[in-house]
Amino acid sequence: MNLDSNLRTARLFRKDDGRTTVLAEVPLLIRTGVPLPLRLWVRGGRIETFMDGRPVIDVTDTRYAHGRIGLKVFGGRTAYQGTFVRAP
């Protein structure tokens, strides 16, 4: 999930051979300088994202049956804490 405080949006992307596909984009007011607990649930083709316990994005994408998870920071600073992946 991409959080952009300047554009006030949350987005979910998929990468395909160097190309980026936006799966979902929603308006979202994002406060900077405060902790933002994020959670992503991926089951089958369904991807749900939550910020501070509230649903943000709920989308279905069945392009890939398995893949990788990436964390990225662009144009800012962040700290990851308690980051893990758990298989069902």
Structure notes:
The protein is mostly beta strands and 88 residues long. It has strands at residues 2-4, 9-16, 19-27, 38-43, 46-51, 54-60. The protein has no helices and six strands. A hairpin with a 2-residue loop joins β2 and β3. The protein starts with a strand and ends in a 28-residue tail after the last strand.
How is this fold's topology laid out?
Layout: E1 2-4, E2 9-16, E3 19-27, E4 38-43, E5 46-51, E6 54-60
Antiparallel strand pairs: 1-2, 2-3, 4-5, 5-6
Please name the defining characteristics of this protein.
three-stranded antiparallel beta sheet, 88 residues, mainly beta, 6 strands
Fraction of residues in H or I helices: under 10%
Estimated structural class: mainly beta
- Order of the strands making up the biggest sheet: 1-2-3
Distance between the termini: 20 Å
Please identify the oligomeric state: single chain
Largest sheet: 3 strands, antiparallel
The DSSP helix count reads: 0
Structure at a glance:
The chain is mainly β and 88 residues long. The chain is built from no helices and six strands.
